[in-house]
Amino acid sequence: MLKKWFFFIATLVFVSALYACSGGDDGDSKEGEAAGGDNVNATGFPIVEEELELTIFANKPAQNEGNDWNDILIWNTYRDLTNINVNWNSVSPDALEENRNLALGSGDLPDAFFLAELSNTDLLRYGSQGAFLPLNDLIDEYAPNLKALMENDPTIEKAITFPDGNIYSMPSLIEDDFLSLRLSARPWVNEDWLNELDMDIPETTGDFYEYLKAVKELDPVGNGDTIPYGGTDIAELVQWLSGSFGVMNHGASNTNLDLDPNDDSKVRYYATADEYREMLEYIHMLYEEGLIDQSIFTIEWGQFLANASDNLYGSMIFYDPIELFGEEIGSQYNSLAALEGPDGHQSYNKLSSSVWTPDNLVITSENPNPAATVRWMDHFYGDEGAELYYMGVEGETFEIEDGEAVYSDHILNPEGDMTFEQAIAQDLTWLGSISGIIKADYFQGGETAPQSMEAAEKIEPQVIDEVWPRFTFTEEENRILQSTGEDINKYVEEMRDKFITGDEDLDNWDSYIQTIEQMGMEELQEVYQAAYDRYQSN
Question: Coiled-coil intervals in this record (predicted)?
Answer without folding.
Answer: none
